[in-house]
Structures are given as structure tokens and as C-alpha cells.
């Protein structure tokens, strides 16, 4: 369990079974440099339950990555409360978070298998068990037969699949993705959206995904948080009640368009 408030970081939580995995209340983050202060995140409140797929969408600079870093335990927040896990579901950010970034950031001298195994090596997990799991994950992300290749031998989309496998190797409770498909061409991105939904469905893990794309936010999410910049704040957080499993043709449906319109309205896009 990880609990922190602005006044008492890491105070024990009073969570009980059935409560949300993540509870944020009025979360706030201010970056400080000498005498300057910059409000990067404010008024962010949401409950995220186990197995949710939450998309964070908003314009550049609205604090999406900052929020992800707070969830990953990389940044402290300055106001509000954040509780992850509970007494019966202890959450350790060093062990229970898997991260995927916009670029796959694979080590070019390690094979794909060894790249996937990196977090397991760092955490000192059993090598044999981790290697077996790495092969299973490579199968799951569609990279069967690529274990012994080096990163340069894979396309951008394939490298990002390897990065997703790496994020899952230590069986994290929470998977955080920062614009994971932002560097891919439009068609590969759509295919990767479908792949990610399949992987999320198979792992039944909790995913939080940052995206600039309103369509992607609606397509991927069971829930969506819309953030705005200047001033930083959360404009809305809502469930996306669209049929699952999702298919690309859903994007042509009125009900999909209604969610997209709702986000355009919140962001003030005409
Ligand atoms: N370490 C830092 N020190 C000072 N200001 C920062 C720092 N990191 C981010 N910021 C500022 O905080 C605001 C939010 O940044 P953040 O990276 O969270 O936004 P974002 O929504 O993820 O943006 P983008 O979509 O462009 O990646 C920005 O104005 C940014 O300049």
C-alpha cells in the first residue's frame, strides 16, 4: 500500500477490500525552481479500480506525464491525497509498477529476451522462472521467434511490443503508459491499440495510458480523465460505456462520436 497526503506522506491507509486500487483526491503538483513556482497538476480526483483501463487525455503541458510520474512514485505531490492499494493489497511502487514510454528505450546491445528480462534482473527475480515468463510474454505480444534478435532487427511497432513485454515481466499490479504509440505511423498505431486491448484483457491488470489523441482515449479506455492546461486542472473523469471487445469500426458509430464530442467540448475545441 502506498498512501500519501501533502501533510503526511506515506501515512497508513484505511482502505478496505472492494475499495478502489487508486484513490486520488484533489491532487496537486507544483514544480519549484529557485523563486519560481509552476502549477502542473491541480484538482485531480478519481477512483481507479483493479482491471480498469484509464486514459488520460489533454493538450501538451496539461500535466499528464507528471500525474503518471506521481503514480509511479517518481514524484511527490504537493497537495491532496493519493492512496494506492490497501491493508490487504500492499502496493510497492518499486515492485508493482510497469512503465511503457513513447520510445521503446531498448538497450541496443541486449537481445530482445534480455531486454524483456531487465526489470527481473534489477529486482533479483528467479532467472529460470523469469526467462520462462519472458518467453510467454513474447508469445503474448506477438514476438514469438524474436527472442534472440537485437532491437535494430525489429520494426518500431515490434520494439514497442517488446517494451510492453518488459513492463509486464515482474507481474506488476499497475501498468503506466506514456504516449506508448505516439511515435508510430497511424496504421501501426491502430493495430497496436487493438493489441494493447487484447493484452490488457489477457493480463486483467490495471492500465493507465496517457495519450494526446482524443479518439485513442475513447477507443482504449474503460474510463477517461480529461485534463486541461492554463490553469492545470482535471475537467472531467467518466466511464466509457462502449461495447467490448472493441473493434475499429466502433470509431464510425454515433455513440463513439458522442464521447469524442464530449471531450472536444471539455477542451474547448470547436
Ligand atoms: N521537472 C520539471 N520542472 C519544472 N516544470 C516541469 C517539470 N516537468 C514538467 N514541467 C512543466 O509542467 C507542465 C506539465 O508537464 P507534463 O510533462 O506533465 O505535461 P504533459 O501533459 O505530459 O505534456 P506533453 O503532452 O507535452 O508530454 C509543463 O508546463 C511542463 O513544462
Automatic annotation (TrEMBL):
Transmembrane segments: none annotated. The keyword DNA-binding does not apply. CDD domains: ABC_NrtD_SsuB_transporters. Signal peptide: none annotated. The keyword rRNA-binding does not apply. Pfam families: ABC_tran (PF00005). Keywords: ATP-binding, Cell membrane, Membrane, Nucleotide-binding, Transport. This is NitT/TauT family transport system ATP-binding protein. It comes from Pusillimonas noertemannii. The lineage of its organism: Bacteria, Pseudomonadati, Pseudomonadota, Betaproteobacteria, Burkholderiales.
Amino acid at each position: 500500500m502506498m498512501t500519501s497526503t501533502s501533510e503526511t506522506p506515506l501515512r497508513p491507509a484505511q482502505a478496505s477490500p472492494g475499495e478502489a486500487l487508486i484513490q486520488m483526491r484533489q491532487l496537486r503538483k507544483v514544480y519549484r525552481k529557485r523563486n519560481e513556482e509552476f502549477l502542473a497538476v491541480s484538482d485531480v480526483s478519481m477512483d481507479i479500480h483493479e482491471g480498469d483501463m484509464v486514459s488520460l487525455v489533454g493538450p501538451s503541458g496539461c500535466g499528464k506525464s507528471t500525474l503518471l510520474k506521481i503514480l509511479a512514485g517518481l514524484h511527490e505531490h504537493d497537495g491532496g491525497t493519493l492512496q494506492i492499494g490497501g491493508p490487504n493489497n500492499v502496493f510497492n511502487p518499486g515492485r508493482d509498477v510497469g512503465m511503457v514510454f513513447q520510445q521503446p528505450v531498448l538497450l541496443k546491445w541486449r537481445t530482445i529476451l534480455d531486454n524483456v528480462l531487465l526489470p527481473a534482473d534489477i529486482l533479483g527475480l528467479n532467472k529460470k522462472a523469469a526467462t520462462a515468463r519472458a518467453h510467454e510474454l513474447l508469445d503474448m505480444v506477438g514476438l514469438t521467434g524474436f527472442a534472440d534478435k537485437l532491437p535494430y532487427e525489429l520494426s518500431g511497432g515490434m520494439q514497442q511490443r517488446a517494451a510492453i513485454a518488459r513492463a509486464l515481466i515482474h507481474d506488476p499490479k499497475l501498468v503506466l503508459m506514456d504516449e506508448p504509440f505516439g511515435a508510430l505511423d497511424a496504421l501501426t498505431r491502430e493495430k497496436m491499440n487493438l493489441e494493447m486491448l487484447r493484452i490488457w484483457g489477457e493480463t486483467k491488470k490495471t492500465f493507465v495510458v496517457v495519450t494526446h489523441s482524443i479518439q485513442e482515449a475513447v477507443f482504449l479506455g474503460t474510463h477517461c480523465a480529461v485534463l486541461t492546461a492554463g490553469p492545470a486542472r482535471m475537467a472531467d473523469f467518466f466511464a466509457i460505456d462502449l461495447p467490448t471487445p472493441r473493434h475499429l469500426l466502433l470509431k464510425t458509430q454515433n455513440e463513439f462520436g458522442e464521447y469524442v464530442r464530449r471531450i472536444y467540448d471539455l477542451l474547448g475545441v470547436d
